[in-house]
Specification:
Layout lengths: L5 H8 L4 E3 H9 L3 E5 L7 H5 L5 H8 L2 E6 L2 H9 L4 E3 L11 E7 L8 H10 L1 E12 L4 H10 L14 H10 L2 E10 L9 H17 L6 E8 L15
Parallel strand pairs: 1-7, 2-3, 2-5, 3-4, 5-6
Antiparallel strand pairs: 6-8, 7-8
Length: 242
Amino acid sequence: MKYSSTQEFIATIRHAPYVPKTEFIRSRVAGKKVLDLGCVQHSLDRLFQAPERWLHNVIRANASSVLGVDILEKEVVQLNGMGYNMIVADATTMRLEEKFDVVVCGDLIEHLPNPGALLETIAYHLRQDGIGLVTTPHPLAADRFFNVAFDGWTGINPEHTCWFCPQTIYQLAERCGMHVDDFCWLETIFKSPTKRWFWGFFCNTISRWLVRRNRMMHLDFGVVLSAKRTADHELLSVPSTR
């Protein structure tokens, strides 16, 4: 659906579905031509330790074709040697000559100094009816409160440059020439980290109780995006965020 306002969007997501992150991606890339931005996901540890949960493998197993993109040259070279199809490029500036049915950005946008440029890249590479899939941590999750209260930190990757709640990512999309078409709360494969075992058990137990009563306190979410286009299907020109 196309949301007519921020208020309508926020009212709707209070009751949005809660699904596994891999299923959010899998169901939307099946049989599609896919571009996977930030495909390595930090290192090759996930591939070697849990290959069935590595997002690029999930895409590869379900899409008709997938091209991976990452700035980590060493890892990309190694993966290409293993039979993967990847290139080294900056996801905020790259412009390829081909279009895709789906562009995936799994937990990438929060790592970038210019997240709006990432959305422009997504829009540029989408076919007329294509979609972008963006997943990201939720700063207002119940777990974040307990991390700060008991550990004095937020429990996130230290390389993150920004936070997005659903409202702010909706606004960013609208200002970067995109619509938010769908939204899901995402089930992650890990518990919230804590520095003390006792508080970790306590925090995760209370957090699970809270999110069952208020979905707005889940740890992660994902949005489905489409590019704004003119009547003749050309991409709508928007001011550059770079």
